UniProtKB/TrEMBL annotation:
Residues 232-366 form the GspL periplasmic domain. The keyword Cell inner membrane applies. Residues 32-211 form the GspL cytoplasmic actin-ATPase-like domain. Belongs to the GSP L family. Inner membrane component of the type II secretion system required for the energy-dependent secretion of extracellular factors such as proteases and toxins from the periplasm. It is a single-pass membrane protein. It comes from Acinetobacter towneri. InterPro entries: ATPase_NBD, GspL_cyto_dom, GspL_pp_dom, T2SS_protein-GspL. This is Type II secretion system protein L. It is found in: Cell inner membrane. Signal peptide: none annotated. Pfam families: GspL_C, T2SSL.
Length: 379
């Protein structure tokens, strides 16, 4: 894993892919040094000096009652900025310890603007006290790393310190200390506060963070982390899915209705054919056209004008669900006895045929068991 350590104020960058930190005296120098790691994942440590952090006891029931939004207001009395102007993270450690960490949102934005210039992929943005090893219970780790004095009091609590003697004045006398790379002045300060039994030196190496991306104090905004689809696109997908479901439902309902009409028309066409040419068990919706053409070819004396009229009038009759009881052709005129649902249907048929260019006369209309029967002449 590649690690980057951001400078404080006008300090220098540090980077590492192994046991020690390598200095880059400017951002341009860092960019050149990272060219060999193009596109590689990197964990970035930002100055703990920019962090406001607190740790306190909090019963689990109260923690659940506060929720994520409520917990961040525990930090309110420790910061001069409004909580809404800060990016806040927290970690609850059973049975009743909570650590809350906040960073100004404009500081995070500044970090991200600078980091966007680097040729690596940022996977985590963590406070730099995490570059120190985790202390044992009752122990504090203090390290002078690359000229910066960092303190780590527990797994989730740490600071950046300017004055070691002043920091020690606020510590309990019974605490043990694990130190590294101290200057002579710093050794003098801690030996004046703690006994030799309380002190332990160690050799510092850059720690390997196995799950930096999942660390509770990863301040990289969710949109910058490769954690999956954002809520906005999930909402868009849900809306699109809803629209498709509605459209498919509408199309299915419309198809069902049209299929029903088509089936009724096919049945009526077969009944009409059988009425004209006699019952024939081989007649189906698929072969009625070929059977009708066959009947026409067998009738050598068929009148082509009558057939033309029938071919034009027949679809209109089927559309209106009207059955012809009797058909005859005489003196260039088609005479039909039509059976419809009502007299109004016959009148509507007459108007429709007239609008299509036929000359239509509607004769007497008489009631019947199925509706009404009327004589129609078409020319």
């Amino acid at each position: 894993m590649l690690y980057l350590w951001m400078p404080e104020a006008n300090g220098v960058w540090q980077w590492s892919n192994g046991e020690h930190w390598t200095e880059a005296d400017s951002l341009d120098a860092l960019i050149q040094a990272l060219q060999a790691f193009q596109g590689k994942d990197a964990v970035v440590f930002f100055p703990s000096r920019d962090v406001q952090i607190m740790q306190q006891t909090l019963p689990k029931a109260q923690y659940k009652q506060l929720g994520t939004d409520g917990v961040k207001y525990l930090l309110e009395e420790y910061t001069v900025l409004p909580i809404d102007a800060m990016q806040v993270a927290h970690h609850f450690q059973p049975p009743e310890q909570i650590t809350v960490l906040g960073v100004a949102k404009h500081s995070i934005e500044t970090y991200l603007h600078v980091l966007s210039l680097l040729p690596v992929k940022i996977s985590a943005l963590l406070p730099d006290f995490l570059i120190l090893p985790q202390p044992d219970v009752g122990q504090t780790v203090i390290g002078n790393i690359c000229g910066r004095l960092l303190v780590r009091e527990s797994e989730f609590l740490g600071y950046s310190v300017d004055d070691l003697a002043l920091y020690l004045d606020y510590q309990t006398a019974e605490r043990n200390y694990k130190i590294t790379n101290f200057s002579a002045e710093q050794i003098q300060s801690i030996e004046a506060f703690a006994t030799q039994e309380q002190l332990e030196s160690f050799h510092y190496v850059v720690p390997a963070l196995a799950k930096a991306k999942q660390h509770p104090f990863n301040m990289l905004p969710k949109a910058k982390q490769d954690t999956g689809i954002s809520g906005y696109w999930k909402a868009c997908a849900a809306v699109l899915l809803g629209i498709l479901i509605v459209q498919f439902s509408y199309d299915a309902l419309r198809w069902s209705k049209l299929k029903k009409v088509a089936d009724q028309t096919a049945v009526q066409a077969i009944e009409q054919y059988q009425y004209w040419f006699g019952a024939n068990s081989r007649i189906t919706e698929q072969n009625i056209q070929s059977q009708f053409e066959s009947q026409v070819r067998m009738s050598k004396n068929a009148d082509t004008q009558a057939l033309q009229l029938l071919s034009r009038v027949g679809p209109v009759l089927m559309q209106n669900q009207i059955v012809a009881n009797r058909v005859s052709f005489d003196a260039n005129m088609l005479n039909m006895e039509l059976n419809a649902n009502s007299a109004a249907t016959l009148q509507a048929l007459t108007q429709q045929l007239n609008q299509q260019g036929f000359k239509v006369e509607l004769g007497n209309i008489q009631p019947s068991a199925s509706g009404a029967v009327g004589l129609v002449k078409i020319q």
